[in-house]
User: What shape does this take?
Amino acid sequence: CNDVSAMDALPPGALPSWIQVGGKCRWWSESQQTHHPVVVTAIDEVKRRVVVHFVANHSVWKEVPFSQIGRGPLRPPGPEALDSGKPKRVLSVNEEEARVDGRATPPWYEQLNKAETRQEAVQEVKRKEESHVATQERRRYLWQQEQQRKAEEEHRRREEERHAREAAAEYERLRILEKLKKEREEEQLRQFEVLLMSKEDEVSSKA
Assistant: This one.
């Protein structure tokens, strides 16, 4: 009754909190009048059903429609004292119970392991992708650094060449100025000598 009341309190279409993949619950066997521990291995939202596997026999499994959860044989986890007023009996689930569903599925622990393996594979792929992206980013950063270094070296080389050209031009300018100054001084000296000789000739003629 408590199970049914708890289910009635839930909104239509909602699942109780104890229905989750890997969650432990109980399966009520009318023929044996006892609960068997089971584990939720799948929740199919499309077909609106839950798959559980028996802990005592991993090859035995059941499907339960959402509408029958808590009202049918699939019950929430609880102490064994709530199972029934009858004495407890340690019973195993036989293969006859499994044949009710008409097919076999992998044991629940294998399903969980496969799910974990898939998750690990996804994480490994994600890690490799992140590593690849990081490697690409690192290469792009190094390429940019190399391009910047080359650009700075080219700029420095051009500046050095410009300074060298300016220094050579200044040297040539000073050389020309010095040459012109010397030529001007030589011309002035020549004119002075001509004038001096003209004076001497004038004095000689008067004598």
Q: What stands out?
A: The first helix runs from residue 2 to 8.
